[in-house]
Specification:
3 helices; two-stranded antiparallel ribbon; single chain; Peptide Deformylase; 24% helix; five-stranded antiparallel sheet; alpha+beta
């Protein structure tokens, strides 16, 4: 499977709510593989389908040596919170302290349509919440307090990658999923 181009801040697909997966077929398995390979190549702790231009509720993660994916996630968050550095492959080289739930129970499906439950705390919980936010068109900078968000937006404006030409439009290998690359 080919490494995909990661969409950067400013690309409208990152602000669009992804559609639920309804077909658990070979194309979905190819999408999961593309996400895994692109995430590992970046490298990152997680990658959501919208970040490669596919508007489906799918993400992959690689935390503490554990590689996995979740489709159509539904989260149950702890009341207890954590505060820590968070970054994003769609906002390269930027890290800001972000509040998240300390623990999460995530329910969804694997690439074959089998039910999956993932329980995680700390970094895994942060990653699952971050990637699920991507599926809802939310970026981690949206979760920052007002002053920190102002600093983040300033850093984005000054970033070397800001204003870079968007990837060339091409037919996605996942075109049947709706929103293609």
């Amino acid at each position: 499977m080919p490494i995909q181009t990661i969409r950067l801040f400013g690309d409208p697909v990152l602000r669009t709510k992804a559609d639920p997966v309804v077909d658990f077929d070979r194309e979905l398995r190819n999408l999961v593989k593309d996400l895994e390979e692109t995430m590992m190549d970046a490298p990152g702790a997680g990658l959501a389908a919208p970040q490669i231009g596919v508007g489906l509720r799918v993400f992959t993660y690689y935390v503490d040596g554990q590689l996995g994916h979740l489709i159509n996630p539904d989260l149950d968050l702890s009341v207890e919170e954590q505060d820590g550095g968070e970054g994003c492959l769609s906002l390269p080289d930027l890290v800001f302290d972000t509040k998240r739930a300390l623990r999460v129970v995530a329910k969804g499906f694997d690439q074959h349509g089998e039910p999956v439950t993932i329980e995680g705390s700390e970094l895994l919980a942060r990653c699952i919440q971050h990637e699920t936010d991507h599926l809802d068109g939310i970026l981690f900078i949206d979760r920052l307090d007002r002053e920190t968000r102002r600093l983040a937006l300033k850093a984005i404006r000054e970033a070397e990658w800001n204003g870079a030409a968007p990837p060339q439009v091409k037919v996605s290998p996942h075109a049947t999923f709706g929103r293609a690359v």
